[in-house]
């Protein structure tokens, strides 16, 4: 072999070493071939431009063979998901309108608020007597093409209105029960083995005198456990959150309360996070310094509450919170888009196996990475950093589960079945119950590979 080709071969060998893919089994080789043939069929129906215009094909893509195969694929754990963003508008409205005790009112910064409070409101049933109003509400409860243009901050404001509309109704136990049941059913139908969802246990109008919301968390825990007792191959837990935009005093108080809730419900309250629009975060207030102090004090008394921070969900700013996330010892990073600018943090992420919770469709819609083909998570994956795939707030984007995200990256990232398997295994390693989820997932993966390898093309 000539010197040039030898050098070229060495470069290729070194390059794929970092990714450290498992050697595929004979059946996986065959399954991968079948999947790539189905991908070719899909490409005759949908172009790259169609994939980049999410809204144009979001619903029709569900009928394709490729989508149905990815729906069937056992996906391990979904690590990044927000309570309140799990179900699309049509499902949310069907839950709300079947409850005679739900009322609707309008306030200045948000046109429609659903709640069980009657004051200054009209009943939802009465409001829906005019069929046009149903269309209005479906529009309020989802983002769409028109609302997702422009800079991320513009997309965020319409996106946050969805959460503001439903927050009060969703914290009502009657609604919460139906909401969790239906949302988990959607993930279960997507062959997801575990969901670790973010949840804000405090009311937006919280006051100084509000007690610890331990009864609400106990209720939520029971609802989640009931789903598992009916579906033993599915488990869940909650990462409790306060929000970046709150005052520093409020953030600190709620962080302390979340640490207490972790102590009360250690198996169910999986950890702590502080999401919110990162570009508006007030870096100068040193909130994370105080959170670090709370965390260290809790550890000294034996309360190890893991931290799973949203960080690096920015484009034009340097992203100070990525440093906070690493310095505070976050076990996983929500999004991590701006990590691409921080080689040292990427080295740490690889060495310490810090999981990246990537949400490609959310990033596309909110304007952080409009073209998933150049999503930084693809670069992280090939560097051997544990990348995982989640759907963040699929309901707000008009779908449920996480299959859309897998189809989009499979079509746009130039990856094969072994890369997909690697990211699923990353999700299992990165979740809080890896042994249990792996035990359930392994048999399902084998079954899926046999099914795929034997498919007639
Ligand atoms: Zn998120």
Automatic annotation (TrEMBL):
<dbReference type="InterPro" id="IPR001365">
    <property type="entry name" value="A_deaminase_dom"/>
</dbReference>
<dbReference type="GO" id="GO:0046103">
    <property type="term" value="P:inosine biosynthetic process"/>
</dbReference>
<dbReference type="GO" id="GO:0004000">
    <property type="term" value="F:adenosine deaminase activity"/>
</dbReference>
<keyword id="KW-0479">Metal-binding</keyword>
<keyword id="KW-0660">Purine salvage</keyword>
<dbReference type="InterPro" id="IPR006330">
    <property type="entry name" value="Ado/ade_deaminase"/>
</dbReference>
<dbReference type="GO" id="GO:0006154">
    <property type="term" value="P:adenosine catabolic process"/>
</dbReference>
<dbReference type="Pfam" id="PF00962">
    <property type="entry name" value="A_deaminase"/>
</dbReference>
<keyword id="KW-0378">Hydrolase</keyword>
<dbReference type="InterPro" id="IPR032466">
    <property type="entry name" value="Metal_Hydrolase"/>
</dbReference>
<feature type="domain" description="Adenosine deaminase">
    <location>
        <begin position="155"/>
        <end position="439"/>
    </location>
</feature>
<dbReference type="GO" id="GO:0046872">
    <property type="term" value="F:metal ion binding"/>
</dbReference>
<dbReference type="GO" id="GO:0006166">
    <property type="term" value="P:purine ribonucleoside salvage"/>
</dbReference>
<comment type="pathway">
    <text>Purine metabolism; purine nucleoside salvage.</text>
</comment>
<protein>
    <recommendedName>
        <fullName>Adenosine deaminase domain-containing protein</fullName>
    </recommendedName>
</protein>
């Amino acid at each position: 072999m000539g010197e040039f080709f030898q050098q070229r071969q060495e470069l290729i060998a070194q390059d794929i070493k970092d990714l450290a893919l498992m050697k595929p089994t004979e059946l996986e080789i065959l399954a991968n071939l079948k999947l790539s043939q189905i991908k070719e069929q899909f490409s005759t129906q949908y172009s790259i431009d169609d994939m980049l215009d999410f809204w144009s094909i979001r619903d029709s893509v569900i009928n394709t063979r490729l989508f149905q195969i990815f729906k069937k694929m056992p996906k391990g754990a979904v690590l990044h998901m927000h309570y309140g963003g799990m179900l699309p508008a049509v499902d949310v409205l069907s839950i709300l309108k079947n409850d005679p005790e739900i009322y609707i009112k309008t306030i200045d910064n948000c046109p429609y608020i659903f709640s069980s409070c009657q004051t200054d409101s009209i009943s939802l049933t009465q409001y829906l007597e005019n069929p046009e109003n149903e269309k209005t509400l479906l529009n309020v409860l989802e983002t769409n093409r028109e609302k997702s243009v422009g800079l991320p901050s513009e997309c965020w404001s319409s996106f946050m209105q969805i959460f503001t509309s439903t927050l009060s109704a969703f914290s009502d136990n009657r609604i919460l029960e139906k909401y969790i049941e239906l949302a988990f059913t959607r993930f279960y139908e997507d062959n997801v083995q575990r969901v670790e969802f973010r949840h804000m246990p405090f009311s937006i109008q919280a006051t100084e005198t509000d007690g610890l919301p331990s009864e609400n968390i106990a209720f939520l825990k029971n609802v989640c456990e009931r789903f598992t007792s009916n579906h033993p191959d599915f488990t869940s837990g909650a990462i409790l959150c306060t929000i970046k935009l709150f005052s520093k005093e409020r953030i600190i108080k709620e962080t302390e309360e979340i640490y207490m809730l972790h102590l009360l419900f250690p198996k169910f309250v999986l950890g702590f996070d502080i999401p919110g629009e990162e570009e508006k975060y007030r870096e100068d207030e040193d909130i994370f310094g105080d959170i670090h102090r709370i965390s260290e004090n809790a550890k000294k008394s034996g309360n190890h509450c893991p931290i799973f921070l949203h960080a690096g969900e920015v484009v034009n700013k340097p992203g100070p919170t990525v440093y906070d996330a690493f310095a505070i010892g976050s076990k996983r990073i929500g999004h991590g888009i701006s990590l691409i600018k921080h080689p040292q943090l990427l080295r740490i992420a690889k060495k310490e196996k810090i999981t990246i919770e990537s949400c490609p469709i959310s990033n596309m819609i909110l304007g952080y990475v409009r073209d998933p083909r150049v999503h930084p998570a693809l670069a992280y994956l090939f560097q051997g950093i544990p990348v995982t795939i989640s759907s963040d707030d699929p309901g707000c984007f008009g779908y449920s589960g996480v299959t859309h995200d897998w189809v989009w990256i499979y079509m746009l990232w130039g990856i094969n079945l072994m890369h997909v398997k690697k990211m699923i295994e990353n999700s299992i390693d990165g979740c809080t119950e890896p042994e249990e989820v792996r035990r359930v997932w392994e048999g399902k993966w084998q079954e899926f590979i046999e099914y795929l390898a034997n498919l007639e093309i």
